[in-house]
Amino acid sequence: MPTTAPAAPAPDASAASASGLADVTASDSTLRRFLHGLPGVDAVGLEARAASLGTRSIKTTAKAYALDLAISMVDLTTLEGADTPGKVRALGAKAVHPDPTDRATPSAAAVCVYPDMVPFAKEAVAGSDVKVASVATAFPAGRASMAVKLADVREAVAAGADEVDMVIDRGAFLSGNYLKVHDEITAVKETCGTSARLKVIFETGELSTYDNIRRASWLGMLAGADFIKTSTGKVAVNATPANTLLMLEAVRDFRAQTGVQIGVKPAGGIRTAKDAIKFLVLVNETAGADWLDNHWFRFGASSLLNDLLMQRQKLATGRYSGPDYVTVD
Amino acid sequence: MTMEKRTSAFEYAPAPESRAVVDIAPSYGLFIDGEFAEAADGKVFKTVSPATEEVLSEVAEAGEADVDRAVRAARKAFETWSALPGAERAKYLFRIARILQERGRELAVLETLDNGKPIRETRDADLPLVAAHFFYHAGWADKLSHAGYGPDPRPLGVAGQVIPWNFPLLMLAWKVAPALATGNTVVLKPAETTPLSALFFADVCRQAGLPKGVVNIVTGDGRAGAALVAHPGVDKVAFTGSTAVGKQIARTLAGTRKKLTLELGGKGANIVFDDAPLDQAVEGVVNGIFFNQGQVCCAGSRLLVQESVHDEVLDALKRRISTLRLGDPLDKNTDIGAINSAQQLARITALADRGEAEGAERWSPACQLPENGYWFAPTLFTNVTQAHTIARDEIFGPVLSVLTFRTPDEAVAKANNTPYGLSAGIWTEKGSRILAVANRLRAGVVWSNTFNKFDPTSPFGGYKESGHGREGGRHGLEAYLDV
Amino acid sequence: MSDARLSVLKTYKLYVGGKFPRSESGRVYEVTDSKGTWLANAPLSSRKDARDAVVAARKAFGAWSGATAYNRGQILYRIAEMLEGRRDQYVREVAEAEGLSKAKAAQQVDAAIDRWVWYAGWTDKIAQVVGGANPVAGPYFNLSSPEPTGVVAVLAPQKSSFLGLVSVVAPVIATGNTAVVVAGERVPLPALSLGEVLATSDLPGGVVNILSGRTAEIAAPLAAHQDVNAIDLAGADEALAKELEIAAADNLKRVLRPQPVDDWSATPGTERMTAFLETKTVWHPTGALGASGSSY
After folding, report:
1. What is the mean pLDDT of chain A?
2. Helix (H) or strand (E) run with residue C217 in it
3. Distances from the Cα of B324 to the Cαs of A73, B336, B372, C43, in angstroms?
4. Strand partners, B108
5. Any idea where the domains of chain C sit in the sequence?
6. Which band of pLDDT confidence, cut at 50, 70 and 90, is reported for residue C34?
7. Pair B278, B255: CB distance under 8 Å
8. Which chains form contacts with chain A, at 3 or more CB pairs under 8 Å?
9. Rounded-to-integer distance, Cα C175 and Cα C148, Å
10. In this structure, how many other beta carbons lie within 10 angstroms of the beta carbon of residue C68?
11. Cβ separation of C290 and A208 shorter than 8 Å?
12. SS3 A313
């Protein structure tokens, strides 16, 4: 089982001030100056680097390691209007024991559900290390008043959510109102208290440019995110190797500057074991081995888990598995 | 399978490409007039895998008599080849391009074995570019009257071509494709340490049904090259290699009517401004000097970094270099392969030692070099000035010299302060600065916010002592036409 | 002979860096017409004159190559205007130098003036004709453009003292190179007079430098000079051309070998321009406008 890494000190004002970042969030204009002063991103170069890392060939023992690691990093997700307690219970059971035929299979990292489903999820994973993550802040659009967003968060935390996946106000971000986005994250973080880790979803597909994704990453980290996360899974473009690589560079640079380690969660669109392994290569060669742990890296996914399990079976038995040999939930 | 929490990095298991896709014969002859034949005097030499020092094959060593026979064969073939309608010549070249694609994996493995470069590069760069080069030039064969060289430009005759060992098959393609498309015939002398892919190319020509004598391949050392260049039956000489040999060839050709193109050395500057996209710049700098172990004429072997971001860039660069994977070139995860020969390794070693002796600060990542074969760890020198030998001489190896500048003017002045003029790189997010600096750089290829990109449509070649003439694109045709 | 006035003879001088120095050697040589009659003394340039001319040409290169093509075109056209005004002088000098009738000499001079006009029009077109965008297979903008090679040594033709001279000098400077010109050894006077026109045509000093003297003596140091980028051997015979080409290899000068020219009045092609142009290719990533289009 992947052990949980010791929690790094929570990002707080002292870390920020020690690294000279304290004044950055003093006003809208200082924040803007800081974010727009970050190095630019050349899209072609970034994508070429991500593609190049995608050609790494991960075989045999490395593949076995990577598959188990990837399984342990899955935030098994259901975020549908049609979600029911039954569906969520099934998902929880699967997260705890992904492969009923092989109990040595690691558990998933978490189940990720809507706030009203948190109690059922908690019940389903009780007694295991599997966490319950809840989306909040009027997911996925985030178009609600602050009061409603915070109520959403409070409900999730009160129901026992270990992790809260909030969405940022993309409208505010795109109109340049960075301080508003910052303050919302801070408020949510405060509401999470010490009991829940906060994942901040940027909806990178809506931010559109890589420069924006880099700025959002720093904005989220400055505001106290424990994790930065690409997407809701509800728009056309979700996690890609390139935007995840960019966010990995951001957490790497943030730790170098502040000493604070932040997690990364690509979500949406990662469906195959092959893709997941490519992401792990990105982690390994960008942020480094310190992030190769489900405390610091997650996959927001649903169908990915079954492909990981089938590949795991293939590696163990030498023959290709099929969908009938993994559970459909 | 239990999974222990690993303290070390995600270790990639060996992922070697299979050698079984390529069948190397124990010996090869010269390819003259469509047949493989021994050298007239029966001489042979061995070609080894630089990664292991294993002997791969024994190859005929051409002497003057063999070169003469090859030139005569090419001359004879020229009559019919040049008279062929362009559309028919085009189809031969298209066939060659397609066969090269089909046999891409085999040739990539072969090239990696004979040259020592990583399979990742032969598979993803060399071979795709080789096929693309033939495909591109095929289309020119029947369109030369539209190329801007008059209504009916004529071929020159027999092209004598001498190519280096750093991109054996790609340099062959750069030479042979335009020569054939324009109606010339060819005698090609591959480098002594990397003869095999050219000999496999002879087989590609056979499969394509190319008429006898249109392409002739004479393997051997510099003497065979010198004989070819000096042969009175040669109408055009194309050489890629060292500046010293290039000058010698220029002298040899003085007073003759032979047309000459030279693609020689370089000491490319990669200029990183403080407003650069830094992560991509670091990638570009790494790619610029460690691609093909730095054995690239257009390598960005001088890093000019603005003083205000020097430390940040150096930290990032060292971190990135530390992730480079050096080792078995056939392993699909290898980034840095073997140096091509013991001789080249000795040169790199000597120049790096000189850098140290002259006071530059040397750094390499922790890096285990294999026991056999020719290897050199990625190396970075800081505190380098324009006066250091390592800032002036072409090292042709994985050695980067880092210099600093304060203003764009200073960057340009330092970049241009070399007898070479092949390549340069500019990294900045400011568009007007790119254009202004690119304008003032005396280099034939300027990569802005990228590096080491090649394309058959894009002319390549240098200013000053980096040679003359261009290869690739419409411009490259001129070298093979009577204009 | 209508009156007894004694004419004022011209002291022919070199044209270097926009000034009219005598030869550093302090020596001159006799220039005669085709019948052997003395015409003038011309400076006998030394290696040091060649060196000074290269320094002047190098100094002028930055501004001249950096001038707009339109500006260079206007200056070349201005040279034609200035020549037109002094047409009679050149007709006389060419007639004397080449032993031509006045009518034949006039044809040569007119053709030479028209040649400046022709090249004046080329300055802002050559880049479009020989440069352009290359459709590379990737997300890159890729543009090739011609750039001047640098300092070009030009050995002017030995016979065609003016039209031949203009035909080899104009294409070199039209594209932004600067030139060190060695006038035809026995016919240097029209060339030296050209300096006077260039000096009054807004052509920056040093763009064209004109030396007279023994071609072989001046050419040797130019061919070997490490700060000369190219050499046009039009005025060299076979043996000299070979010797100079060998010397030129030391810094890989671009060499334009001598080609037999029967008639300098024929419309030139672009070859004399492209011989002294480098192709620079600049790449830049294009990429998508946003990250939204990216995928696996």
Report:
1. 94
2. helix C215-224
3. 26, 7, 20, 65
4. none
5. 28-285
6. confident
7. no
8. B, C
9. 6
10. 10
11. yes
12. helix
Residues facing residue C256 across a β-bridge:
C232
Interchain contact B432–A (C-beta under 8 A): no
Look at residue C1 and tell me whether its pLDDT is greater than 70. no
Q: What is the mean pLDDT of residues A149-167?
A: 97
Residue-wise pLDDT tens digits, A127-155: 999 999 999 999 999 999 999 999 999 99
The CATH H-level (homologous superfamily) assignment of domain C28-285 is: Aldehyde Dehydrogenase; Chain A, domain 1 (3.40.605.10)
B297 in active site: yes
Checking if the pLDDT of C156 tops 90, the result is yes
pLDDT of residue C94: 98
The amino acid that residue B347 corresponds to is R
Alpha-carbon radius of gyration of chain A:
19
The two tokens of residue C207 are: 């763009």
Domains belonging to chain A, first-starting first, are 26-325 (3.20.20.70)
Contacts B453 to C, Cβ<8 Å: 136, 138, 140, 283
The predicted structure's pLDDT at residue A15: 53
What would the pLDDT profile of A173-217 be if each residue is shown by its tens digit? 999 999 999 999 999 999 999 999 999 999 999 999 999 999 999
Instruction: Divide the 483 residues of chain B into consecutive groups of 10 and give the mean pLDDT of each group.
Output: 48 96 98 98 98 98 98 98 98 98 98 98 98 98 97 98 98 98 98 98 98 98 98 98 97 98 98 98 98 98 98 98 97 98 98 98 96 98 97 98 98 98 98 97 98 98 97 98 95
Q: Report strand pairing: C151-155 vs A299-301.
A: unpaired
Residues of C in contact with B461 (CB under 8 A): 279
Q: Determine which of C68, C125, C284, C286 to mutate to test the interface with B (most B C-beta atoms within 10 Å).
A: C284
Say how many CB pairs under 8 Å bridge A and B.
93
Beta-carbon separation of C296 and A275 below 8 A: yes
3-state secondary structure chain B: CCCCCCCCCCCCCCCECCHHHCCCCCEECEEECCEEECCCCCCEEEEECCCCCCEEEEEECCCHHHHHHHHHHHHHHHHHHHHCCHHHHHHHHHHHHHHHHHCHHHHHHHHHHHHCCCHHHHHHHHHHHHHHHHHHHHHHCCCHHHCCCCCCCCECCEEEEECCCCCHHHHHHHHHHHHHHCCCEEEEECCCCCCHHHHHHHHHHHHHCCCCCCEEECCCCHHHHHHHHHCCCCCEEEEECCHHHHHHHHHHHCCCCCEEEEECCCCCEEEECCCCCHHHHHHHHHHHHHHHHHCCCCCCCEEEEEHHHHHHHHHHHHHHHCCCCECCCCECCCCECCCCCHHHHHHHHHHHHHHHHCCCEEECCCCCCCCCCCCCCCEEEECCCCCCHHHHCCCCCCEEEEEEECCHHHHHHHHHCCCCCCEEEEECCCHHHHHHHHHHCCCCEEEECCCCCCCCCCCECCCHHHCCCCECHHHHHHHHECC
CB pairs under 8 A between A and C: 47
> A237 vs A83, A241, C88, C139, CA distance in Å?
23, 12, 77, 20
What is the H or E stretch that residue C132 is in?
strand C132-133
Both tokens of residue C253? 């000068």
Q: Which chains touch C (3 or more CB pairs under 8 A)?
A: A, B
Residues of C in contact with A205 (CB under 8 A): 291-292
Which pTM value belongs to this model? Answer: 0.95
